[in-house]
Write a structure and sequence with these properties.
Blueprint (H helix, E strand, L loop, with lengths): L3 H24 L2 H22 L5 H19 L23 H9 L6 H11 L5 H8 L3 H18 L11 H20 L10 H17 L4 H14 L25 H15 L6 H14 L8 H14 L3 H15 L1 H11 L10 H12 L3 H14 L3 H15 L7
């Protein structure tokens, strides 16, 4: 029988954004809404244990959180003292059926710094912990906590309304919304911590939001590109781990089990996203993902074309993470020594100092070069940075290969 604690945890993963968005409508105050929702989840543990699990946990949590909010407002000296966000009397922007997208655009207001917009979206829309957001941004937890606090205060002081932006406001918020949805998907595709490799609930939320954006802005190339990227990547979700939970590399996955309908939809979107000059970062990333998804076998992967696309992506989005992924393509085209030279140059970029995939990729290239002692040291560094159990187990297995009785020193 499913325990109450498991049901509450599942409801937190699946319902957090919807419950919070409904509560913001009452409070017009992000901090108060978040507090009321957290209290509702705590109340659920006790109430559902005593009275049984409700048929619709999300509806129960929404009602409880809204009651908490109304009680808090009644206790306030005046209602106005709690209405930090402007009351939405008339819908000024496009009509959308899901409050989660409104919440994304609230978090992505141009008055906030880009990093704060994305971090606030992950915290409020997705319920991702500050610790895990900090890891995604490669900064310390106190730094990220301060960013989120400042962003919420700025929304309150500026009186930013909880509504969809008007058509002329959308362009100023679209890039941040795309970044936030992509980072949400990335957090679900490979969970930053825990026993499972993935958080499919987060990945599905990101796909839902990307589809809503495509319906809202069907002619935006980068919106198409983002949805295509998510579809092509998520098409492999069923094959990324073995039945025992072991991580499977791309070359080990059963391609016959990939979602061909999603891959075909991604392909059609990519054709539109790449049409015209200067394709954006999401269109280019989608094209790379599609080359992986459509290769009949691992050996048939068109690494030369992938490298060309990474060169273009690095121009459109000069990120150290893109440069790291490009180094993998270099290794596949020109050999592990060439890839290792790229990695060693990237090691001087302090932005990647705590990024677990840098030492993991370096270790793999050293392994392929037969430098087992050096590879073992890199695997140890990667393990120290990894919090996801499936990734840690995979790295530990590779480390054992480098340090076992049959592994000569180099």
């Amino acid at each position: 029988m499913t325990s109450v604690r498991q049901v509450v945890a599942d409801a937190h993963r699946r319902e957090w954004a919807s419950v919070l968005a409904a509560t913001v409508r009452v409070t017009r105050d992000l901090d108060l809404a978040e507090e009321c929702v957290q209290d509702a989840y705590a109340e659920a543990l006790d109430s559902w244990t005593r009275q049984g699990i409700p048929a619709r946990p999300g509806a129960w949590l929404t009602t409880a959180a809204r009651h908490n909010a109304l009680d808090a407002l009644r206790r306030a000296t005046t209602l106005r003292s709690k209405l930090h966000l402007l009351v939405e009397r008339v819908a000024a922007g496009p009509v959308v059926p899901d409050d989660r997208l409104r919440l994304v655009f609230l978090c992505c207001h141009p008055a906030l710094a880009i990093e704060a917009q994305v971090a606030l979206t992950l915290r409020l829309v997705c319920g991702v912990t500050t610790q895990h957001i900090a890891k995604a941004f490669l900064v310390s937890e106190p730094t990220m906590a301060a960013r989120i606090t400042r962003a919420k205060k700025k929304i309150a002081i500026a009186g930013i309304p909880f509504r969809m932006p008007s058509p002329y406001e959308l362009p100023d918020r679209l890039n941040a919304a795309l970044n936030a949805i992509h980072l949400l998907f990335t957090t679900g595709h490979t969970a930053p911590a825990g026993a499972d490799l993935t958080r499919n609930d987060l990945a599905e939320q990101a796909l839902d939001l990307a589809r809503m954006l495509r319906d809202l802005l069907p002619d935006e190339r980068e919106v198409r590109g983002l949805l295509a990227l998510l579809l092509a990547t998520h098409s492999r979700r069923a094959t990324r781990t073995a039945p025992d939970g072991r991580l499977l590399l791309l070359e080990e996955q059963d391609r016959s089990a990939w979602d061909r309908q999603a891959i075909a939809e991604a392909h059609d979107l990519i054709m539109g996203a790449l049409r015209g000059p200067d394709p954006g970062r999401f269109a280019l990333q989608a094209a790379i993902a599609a080359l992986h998804a459509t290769a009949p076998t691992w050996d048939d992967t068109d690494w030369n074309q992938i490298l060309v696309l990474y060169d273009e992506l690095l121009k459109a989005w000069p990120s150290p993470v893109v440069a790291l992924n490009r180094a993998v393509a270099v290794a596949m085209v020109s050999g592990p020594a060439a890839g290792l030279a790229e990695i060693e140059a990237l090691e001087r970029d302090q932005r990647l100092a705590s990024y677990r995939y840098l030492p993991a990729i370096k270790a793999d290239l050293l392994r392929r070069l037969g430098r087992k002692t050096d590879a073992a040291a890199a695997y140890e560094q990667a393990i120290a940075l990894a919090d996801n159990d499936a990734e840690s187990a995979f790295l530990a297995g590779r480390l054992a290969e480098m340090t076992g009785p049959s592994a000569p020193g180099h």
